Amino acid sequence: MPWAETVTMQRLEFIHACQASGDSFSAVCRHFCISRKTGYKWLKRFQPDDVSSLEDHSRAPLTHARQHSSDVINCLIRLRRAHPDWGPNKIRQWLLNHEIPFDVPAGSTIGDILKREGLVPDRIKRRKTPENTHALTDIQAVNQVWSADFKGKFRLLSQEYCRPFTLTDNHSRYLLACEASASENLLFTRACFERAFHEYGLPEVVRTDNGAPFAGTGIAGLSSLSVWMIKLGIYPERIKKGHPEQNGRHERMHRSLKAGLSHNNIRQTMEEQQAWFSDYRYEFNHERPHAALGGATPSSVWVPSPRQWDGRVPEINYPEGARLYKVAEKGDIRLGKRLFVSEALRGEYVMLKEVGEGLDVVLFDRMILAYYDRAKHSIIRID
After folding, report:
1. Rounded Cα–Cα distance for residues 34 and 7 (Å)
2. Which letter, b or e, does each residue of 158-192 get, where b requires 16 or more Cβ atoms within 10 Å of its Cβ?
């Protein structure tokens, strides 16, 4: 069989055999199971006073056709230090604009050079919202599942951005809210939900995507908004990342809303735009036939929720004698040592319930957040 790539002693034996043997060169090569071309290569390369001459040489090229000179590299370094906020493409365009007397490297090559020289800081790793591991609710009735989202932003005639908040009942397609806003913040979103809950009652589930303020980056994707909903007896449900079709009925409404806006219905101010949204919502609910409803209107199918809300936010009612732990300001609980749960739960109580030998489940109301390994004193995330 052919030589292993690093067997230097076998190559030395081959050289000695060639020098001492009376056999032909071809016979010696056959004895060592190598080709004549390989044999001649090692005979030519062998130096009697240097056994290392029979070792493998590096296969790296001695020269690089696209290797850049030190002058080019130094020019890029000077530019980067003079303009630390410029990226590779910006630096490349500056060089092209000033007709620098050398071939300007590609933006990706400039980025590689700057990174090699330590002039590109490491990108900050941002915490991402964890994936939803629970199956979505099968929609069978009115007020079973509501969907909420912010439609994509657009500019008013005043050039101010408008970010409409929308809320629908999935079964009847009833458009419960369409509120104009300049931002997608928690206070505005919660106020929209409060108005809808006061007027229409409480749903069983609210389905959203994974963006703020609906979801957070902590355990189970909890946010301050979802914790508030759980205390109201509403289960927050998130679709999978990158799968808007899981909220398809709501996205279909957004398509209709976008089409309505495209017919010269973008207004000058936020107040004027809200007036149009209110008119559109009435038309969508009471006049516009829906194919999914057999041509009926949403208002002919939808009814208010029997779960009326009086504006109070009750505390979670845990069973008597349950093992409760209060979540501290930093989002942790003390179980011999401090264990992080979620900042969204600060000030709330979570319950630990034994489910196996040395294993507890961590619950907030009826929602399973994680598991606690008593032997290792660690939280086991399930998202």
Report:
1. 13
2. eeeebbbbbbbbbbbbbbbbbbbbeebeeebbeeb
CB 194 within 8 A of CB 164: no
134: pLDDT confidence band, cut at 50, 70 and 90? confident
Specify the pLDDT at position 64.
Answer: 67
Residue type, 297: T
d(CA 358, CA 371): 10
Name the more confident of 161 and 53.
161
Residue 204 predicted with pLDDT over 90 = yes
CATH number for 145-300 (one of 3.30.200.20, 3.20.110.20, 3.30.420.10, 3.10.129.10): it is: 3.30.420.10
Q: What global pTM score does this model have?
A: 0.69
As a whole number of angstroms, the distance between CA 319 and CA 152 comes to: 43
Question: What is the pLDDT at residue 228?
Answer: 97
Kindly list the domain boundaries of the chain, sorted by start residue.
8-54, 70-116, 145-300, 323-381
Cα–Cα distance measured from residue 298 to residue 142, given in angstroms and rounded to the nearest whole number: 10
20/106 Cα distance (integer angstroms): 58
For residue range 323-375, list pLDDT tens digits in order: 999 999 999 999 888 989 999 999 999 999 999 888 999 999 989 999 999 88
Contact 188, 148 (CB under 8 A): no
CATH for 70-116, among 1.10.10.10, 3.20.20.10, 3.30.360.10, 3.40.50.150?
Answer: 1.10.10.10
CB atoms within 10 A of CB 307: 15
Tokens found for residue 107? 């933006």
